[in-house]
Amino acid sequence: MATLPNGSPLDIRAFDADGSLHDAKVLQWGDAHLLDINVLMAGPELPIRMTASDDAFLPVKANAADGKLMDVKATSPDGPKLEEEGVEWSGRIALIKAMGPGQTLRGVNAISPEGRMHDVEGVRMSDGPEKGKVAGFAISACIKFLPQTIAKNEDLIWNVKGIGTEWYPFGVKAIVKNRSVHEVKAFMENGDRWIMDCKALVEEKEVAVNMLLSDDALISVKAVAADRWIHLR
Prior knowledge:
single chain, 233 residues, mainly beta, 0% helix, elongated
């Protein structure tokens, strides 16, 4: 999926010749460190690759059974359709982004059934601008699912999401007694993405999010301000 600045998700899909949409999924068979991302259609699964080009951005396409290329885009039912592109090389890894208006770039990630985020990148196993040819088309990289790299010495603010049915993310908000709704964010410090502070942004203040002490089987999670509890939903 790709993610808009407000944290809203966009599904990654391939478009065939008649405009029909087909889901792109990560397929795991054993090793979870370098996985293929394929388009699911009736019949064989179709691989997704980054095509070779002299342009600054390299198109990401799916190879159809008849040898033709299918567009791969980030989509939502009532939102934008963003092209998937390879935007920059780091050694043999190509950074894959969804490109919005004005060449704004959105990250592309995959979510595991356990809710873990992984990077989606282009991988080239050999030297040179081309990895090979498929049905006459020059390919520069295969699109793979990789464990996320660890940022160094960065302070970033992350969107907080719940994982619903079919692993689809939904927003988490803080709701005060007057029914006003506020954002909940995770704050990464010094590049540590393993342990982050989760806070609600209420009236220009950061309010810590905590689990309340309880003997109940299910323990409430609240944003705890100095004078009140704030519900999270």
